[in-house]
Amino acid sequence: MRVPANDMPGKAEHHRSGRELAEAVLTQAPYSPMHAPVLVLNASYEPINICAARRAIVLVLKGVAITEEINGHLLHSARIAVRVPSVIRLLEYRRIPHQTRALSRKNILLRDRNSCQYCGVLLPSSELTLDHIVPRSRGGQSTWENLVACCHPCNHKKGNHLLHECSMKLLREPRTFNLHTSRHIMRMMGGSDAKWRKYLFY
Ligand SMILES: [Zn+2]
Fold first, then answer.
1. Which of the two ends of the chain, N or C, has the fewest CB atoms closer than 10 A to its terminal CB?
2. How far is the CA of 59 from the centre of ligand 1 (A)?
3. Model confidence over 152-167: pLDDT tens digits?
4. SS3 content of the chain, % helix, strand, coil (to 5)
């Protein structure tokens, strides 16, 4: 599947490596090999998701998926040693509906790649807040189009103002987060990982 050129990472993001972004996005969990991100491919080799290594190993042990690439770590249990995957592939083709992801704080931060949508600073999830572009006190709704990741200083500066009232600007138009957006993020996260690259860029 081809993705239009305008869906590729913008120039402003080139100075951040995929690994840095992956770390920013995954800072909720303390880093361990079990939390390492694993790329999930459909039976057709189309990238469809990213999951934690722990979940990927369960899928492989259940016979739902096979390991396509390993990340070099070995997981030992009492009886067996399992190679920790870097890329897995589902054995049965799964239809992926073009559905919207659930509106949640986690998904908004993921969509906005853990960066403040006003000043662009990249922060761990715990240091970001959600900003209603049109404030709730002025009739703004909690929707994909009206919520963005925001740092505390920008949030404070904006207060209950509309953007034109405080001369602030959004770095990009907030959109609904769907599979198309997810694929964009997979590319951003996998761009520096040679084992992911061949599945993400074609
Ligand atoms: Zn900011």
1. N
2. 39
3. 999 999 999 999 999 9
4. 35, 20, 45
